Amino acid sequence: MANTPHGGVLKDLHVRDEHIHAQLAAEAETLPYVTLTERQLCDLELILNGGFSPLEGFLTLAEYTSVVETNRLPDGTLWTMPIYLDIDSAELERLGVRVGGRLTLRDPRDDQPLAIITVSDVYQADRATEAEKVYGANDQAHPAVHYLFHSTRDTYVGGKVQAVNAPQHYDYVAIRRSPAEVRALFRKLNWTRVVAFQTRNPMHRAHRELTVRAARMRHANVLIQPVVGLTKPGDIDHFTRVRVYQAIMPKYPNGMAQLSLLPLAMRMGGPREAVWHAIIRKNFGATHFIVGRDHAGPGKNSQGTDFYGAYEAQELVLRFKAELDIEVVPFQMLTYLPDTDEYEPINEVPAGVKTLDISGTELRRRLKTGAPIPEWFSYPEVVRILREANPPRNKQGFTVFLTGLHASGKEAIARALQVALNQEGGRSVSLLLGETIRHELSSELGYTKRERDINVGRIGFVAAELTRAGAACIAAPIAPFADARQNVKHLVAKSGGFYLVHVDTPLDVCIKNDRAGVYKRAIAGEIKGFTGIDDVYEAPVDADLVADITKAPISQIVHEIILLLERDGYIGDR
Q1: Which end of the chain is more exposed for a tag (fewer CB within 10 A), N or C?
Q2: Taking the C-alpha atoms of 173, 179, 183 and 186 in order, what is their torsion angle to the nearest 10 degrees?
Q3: In the chain, count of helices (H) and strands (E)?
Q4: Could you report the per-residue pLDDT of 433-483, keeping only the tens digit for each?
Q5: H/E/C letters for each residue in 339-406?
Q6: What is the percent of the chain with per-residue pLDDT over 90, rounded to a whole number?
């Protein structure tokens, strides 16, 4: 039979509140409301369906303090991660929220009311203490600490919630199951011993081998339960990962394994998070839980060393083994033995035996360059899915962002580069000239710093979308401010290549080349705030290429840009 929920009772608030659903739905429309963040949405979904049992809402100050300081709720129940509803104090003031008041919590995707919270506490927390106690260090190289200081609102609201609606999902609906649904599945399949496997990464042969070994050792079935909420920034998107999981499921013996998705917002909290994950899997009915090497680890700290020890998470989970009442299955990293074509735990391999491994960094390199990925590492079906989602550089999009003064020649370079890239072929090429964007997208904007930044931000958004779609984008605005250019780079680099070209033509040459006479009008005082005359141009210090049309012909400048693209594999056939 399925494991007993943490705390003894599955806190399924949808079932608890079903008899007053109509009343709650009507009330939700009359109350002040807050729109949840993506993390809060994940947290609320698991509060409502019982995945976070015994929680029935967001933590009050007493509960928060107890969890942060002791890994326990005030009644002594083991709970390692603070779950709070953070809201801006100004927003709370605007809404008139007070202790005892009620708020509707709305879905950020479709504005549907999901729950009503009765406010029991409004408080502010010491973020430095939270970082030190929960994540082990006040170091913003840790993604959860960075989120804490840059995305978390300044005031925490605690209180119990009542369920109005479950969040509506449109992807992989058949394998998005609540704890009650997973438990019902176990009963239907007559599964009495279940090993749960947590992952936020694609699965390969080693993962399949690890889970089968765990099932064999514990005479159990396997629940593959990957996270499809928030994970570590830079992780592969969940759509790609779920396609991988679906491809790998037939590799298990018939009837051994089931796939079910978990809408969890991970914190990458290492040891504490491993205990939290074990509690969640217990609530879903699992009797066993795999804790591997560096479970939920965020990587390196700001000093270049790992935040947590490789097996620190295993040690903490084992310390709470009796209270967790879920059997931990600790595993060492598996390594491949080519001479016998098998995987073995690295600590069980005899000295001198040849082993092979491919690191995550090496896998990403092979995906980017199109280098082969051997079948001993992953299944062809999995590799095909990953290659579709991570095409090699010569199939990825990129943006060449030319910045410089008016009449510096950047538009002529941009047009010539467009011709060269069209001649190269292989992808569509889009040209975003400064004046074109001003006319088509930003005609209502003036030339203050704020308005210039908005204009450049719009260019960045369009460039990022084109890059994500695999196109070549050439943008040529003045873009005088470094912070706005950096924001564009940040947007575009998520999806492909970004090259900053500073067209550093001297001002006197720009004035000479200005056939429209705009510089003369600016010098005469007829135009105010003109870049290069009475408004600043912040010359890039991080340009990939600095060009000057007085020192090199446009054809040479274009050739140097082409060489940059070829060097990085965006054009050419290697």
Answers
A1: C
A2: 50
A3: 22, 19
A4: 988 888 888 889 888 999 999 999 999 999 999 999 999 999 999 999 999
A5: CCCEEEEHHHCCCCCCCECCCHHHHHHHHHHCCCCCCCCCCHHHHHHHHHHCCCHHHCCEEEEEEECC
A6: 86
What is the Cα–Cα distance from 179 to 169, expressed in whole angstroms? Answer: 16
Q: Is the peptide bond before 54 cis (omega within 30 degrees of 0)?
A: yes
Nearest CA among 231, 312, 222, 229 for reference residue 263: 229
In sequence order, what E strands does 193-287 have? 194-199, 221-226, 257-259
User: Using an 8 Å Cβ cutoff, are 412 and 554 in contact?
Assistant: yes
- Of 488, 465, 468, 493, the C-alpha closest to 478 is 488
Torsion angles phi and psi, residue 229, rounded to 5: -100, -135
Structure tokens at 85: 């509803």
Helices (H), 249-348: 270-283, 312-319, 321-324
Q: Count CA within 13 A, CB hemisphere, residue 263.
A: 26
Region 155-168 average pLDDT: 98
**What is the model's pLDDT at position 399?**
98
In the predicted model, is pLDDT for residue 368 greater than 90? no
What is the predicted pLDDT for the residue at 435? 84
Is the Cβ–Cβ distance between 270 and 136 less than 8 Å?
Answer: yes
* 12 and 179 Cβ atoms separated by less than 8 Å: yes
> Distance between CA atoms of 297 and 290, rounded to whole angstroms?
15
The DSSP element (H or E) to which 452 belongs, if any, is helix 449-468
What is the Cα–Cα distance from 356 to 111, expressed in whole angstroms? 50
Task: Dihedral sign for Cα 257, 263, 267, 269, please.
Answer: negative
> What tokens does 481 get?
């401010």
Alpha-carbon Rg for the chain, nearest whole angstrom, is 28
- State the chain's maximal CA–CA distance in angstroms: 87
Q: 86-123 pLDDT, tens per residue?
A: 999 999 999 999 999 999 999 999 999 999 999 999 99
Output phi, psi for 116, to 5 deg: -120, 130
The answer to whether 180 and 49 have CB atoms below 8 angstroms apart is yes
pLDDT of 382-409, one tens digit each?
Answer: 999 999 988 888 889 999 999 999 999 9
Confidence tier at 574 by pLDDT (50, 70, 90): low
DSSP state of 528: S
* Contact present, 214 and 227 (Cβ < 8 Å): no
Judged against a pLDDT cut of 90, whether residue 364 lies above it is answered with no
Parallel, antiparallel or unpaired: strands 429-433 and 472-476? parallel
The structure tokens listed for 422 are: 């069209």
Does 315 score more than 90 pLDDT?
A: yes
Q: Is 96 exposed, middle or buried (0-12, 13-18, 19+ CB in 10 A)?
A: exposed
Please report, for residues 83, 232, 457, the alpha-carbon distance to residue 153 in angstroms, rounded to integers and kept in the order given: 13, 20, 24
| Nearest partner of 127 among 151, 157, 149, 146, judged by Cα | 149
Q: Is 163 in contact with 17 (CB distance < 8 Å)?
A: yes
Active site residues: 199-201
Q: Could you tell me the two tokens for 256?
A: 């051994």
The pTM assigned to this predicted structure is 0.86
